[in-house]
Specification:
Blueprint: E1 4-7, H1 11-16, H2 22-30, H3 32-37, H4 52-66, H5 68-74, E2 75-77, H6 91-100, H7 113-122, H8 130-142, E3 146-148, H9 150-164, H10 169-175, E4 177-185, E5 193-201, E6 205-211, H11 220-230, H12 233-253, E7 256-258, H13 268-279, E8 284-291, E9 304-310, H14 315-326, H15 336-358, H16 375-380
Parallel strand pairs: 1-7, 2-3, 6-8
Antiparallel strand pairs: 1-4, 4-5, 5-6, 8-9
Helix pairs in contact: 2-12, 2-15, 4-5, 4-9, 6-7, 12-13, 12-15, 14-15
Amino acid sequence: MTPGVYLHLDFSEYLAVDALGSSDMKTLLRAPADWWYDSRYNLDRVRPDREKHFILGSALHAILLEGEAAYNAQFSVAPDPREHPHAARTIEDLKTLLDANEIAFQVSKMKKKSDFVELAVEEGLGQYVWDAICEAHTARVEDGASPLSHAEHNALLHMSALVQSHPEIGPGLLGGMSEVSVFWYREGADDILYRARFDTLAKTFSGDLKSMSNWQGRDPAHAAIRQIVELEYDIQATLYQEAREELRKFVKAGKVWTGGEDKRLTTEDDMEKIKAIAASDSWVWIWLFQQLRDDTGTRPKAPVLIPRFYRPSSIEEIKQSVEEAKSGDQSAGFDMMTQAWLKIEKATANYRSFRDTLGFDTPWMHVDPNHEILDEQLAAAGLAYKGV
């Protein structure tokens, strides 16, 4: 993929590009050998069925960032009986429906309920027949649409409305752009292509939508901060800061494409928006933590939206801070993006080490040196031995 900015690039195409993103960085940092097993190079990789929370996350992205048409194209909502109170359900209902529309039928030839349903559908009355309404949903799921319950659909609509009505976030979403992809080489190295896909970009912020995993029932605001730390969202925020600075250069150089590098940008609205975003030299990074409404279980949950922003340093400032940290100068104290930059450097070094040693045709593996375990290490790990 030629380095540049890509608008409206299908997510499957984005993932198909041989490039490293923030999720790759996290794996390469902590368990670099594992990276190969989830890559395109592992021909034995078996993809698991998508879990429900992934489907809900994708659905919220679609309805909030891509629009209603994209949402309806990708997802099928199970019909709710409350929305079809007069739909024909029994044979008697079906007979009444056919009679009311002056459709002749011979009862002696109608052997079962499905015969009545089939006739009603043939006569264009499927929207009034409960079985046909349900079959339409089933058919869409069989054709590849992801299924959603009506309750899940309502929860998604509720959260979308919360985000769009937020006085600071909503206007930015309306005037910004969603699902903007950037591919670039880092300074001084053209052997690794990097990628980033912004959930939302506005002149004043870069935003990422995050599902709230708060199963322990903590205060939501505290849970959001813990999630940033525990799931190392600092890596994404820092890599995407670099991506946004690269985006500004690409837009200035005219390296902007729609749906692929061979399809030049054609809409004036898109060009005006991306130019306005690129012209801004000041922005914040926003995590939009969201907890969907949940009416099930022993503890139903209300919809919760927790925006948290971080004021990033420029890449040049981050680099300078990194050099100071490497030299042992800790006078500046803790800085999230400095620490994350060091993580990205370590992850990249791990990638190059495994790539250059094993290549991609050989499964990656790791064998640790044999070290002696000391009592001090066990004590530091919190292990306590009880006397017998």
